[in-house]
## 1
Amino acid sequence: MIVLHHTGGNDIDADAEQIHGWHLNQGWAGIGYHYVIKKNGTIERGRPEWAIGSHAYGENSHTIGIHISGDFDSAQPTEKQIENCAELVADICTRYGIPIDTDHVVGHGELMATSCPGTNLQALINDGTITGKANWYANPDKADIVEPEPQGARSTERFNTISACPEWAQPTIRKMVEKGLLTGKGATDADGLPADLDLSLDMLRLFVVNDRAGLY
C-alpha cells in the first residue's frame, strides 16, 4: 500500500532534511517517510524504498509513506503537489504491481486514529482525484505525450540513440544520458553519445513519467 501524510501544525512547507531532524530528535533512526513533496511540487527522497518506514504504526512493513508538506485541515494541497503526487503514486504502483485504487492508496487516518493527512487531502483520496490522476499517468497510451504507433510496434520497436527516440521522450533521455543514468553498452555515435541504448517504448514512457515526477 501507499500511505499519504501531511505536516499539520502551521502549514509548514517542510523539506526532507527538516523532517529528518524532527524524527532524529524523537529518537528515531531518521526520517520515517520514503518521499516528501514540497509545495512547489519538488519530490525529495526520505528513506530508501527498501527500508521499512516509520510512518504508520503496525503497517510499516508493507507500505511506502509519502509526506505532502502543509496543513490540509486548514489549507489545500497545491496543484503541483497533487499532480506530482499522482505521478509518484503511478510510478511506485507500476513498479511494485500495486493496484491504483482507494483500497491501496490511503490516508494515514484510514489505518489508525489520527487526523493526518488532513480533511482536504483526505477528500482528494476519497473522491478518487489522486488515484484517478495516477491511473492516467500509469496508462500513457491515453496520455498526450504518446504518439500514435503502428499495430504491433509496442512489443518490438527499439530505440538505440537519442535522436531515434520520439520527440516527447528525447529531453528525458538526453538528461539521463548526461547524468550517467543511461550509458548503453559502450558504443557511441559521431557526437560521442550512446548508440546502443536498446530502449523499448514502454521504457521511454516510464522514464518520462519519472522525469515529470522530478526523480531525475
## 2
Amino acid sequence: MMTSLVLTVIGPDKPGLVEMLAQTIANNSGNWLESGMSRLAGKFAGILITEVPEKHAEQLINALSALESQGLKVTVERSDSPENNSLTQHFTLELVGHDKPGIVRDISSVLAKHHVNVERLTTELVSGSMSAELLFKAEAELLASTDLDLDELQTSIESIANDLMVDIVFNK
C-alpha cells in the first residue's frame, strides 16, 4: 500500500536545496509527484507531494525532519485518502489591477461563500506597461461541485471587481 505525503519546505535560499530534498526522498523509497517551489524574500519555499510505500513512510518522515540540521525545515502531512473529483467542475480566474491591500481577501471571500475550492493560486506584483505603478496579478485554478451556478458566481465576482478596481477574466 502506498502513502501520499504532502510536504511544505522552507529555508534560506542557496544552491542544492532541491537536490538535497530529492535525494532524501529517493534514498528513502519515495517518489516525487507534484510540486511548486519559489524564491520568496530570500527564502526557498515550496510544497510537494511524494508517494512512498507505507512500510517506508516513517523512515522517510524522519529523514526529512533531519534536513532541518542543514537549514531546510520540512513539515509533513499524510494524505491516505484518494481525491474524488467525479462530481466537480474546474475553471479559472485571472485578475489584474492596481495593487492595494485586500484583493485576495475579497475575492476569496466570494469564492468561499459559493463553496469554491482554490486548487492553485499564483500572485505577483509587476510594473505597469504604461506607468511605473505596481499591478497585482493573480491566476487561480478553482474547483466546485457540478451543481454550482457558474453564471451566478461570475456575477458575484464581477460585482466586487469595480470596488477593487481590478479586471477579472473568468474562464469556464
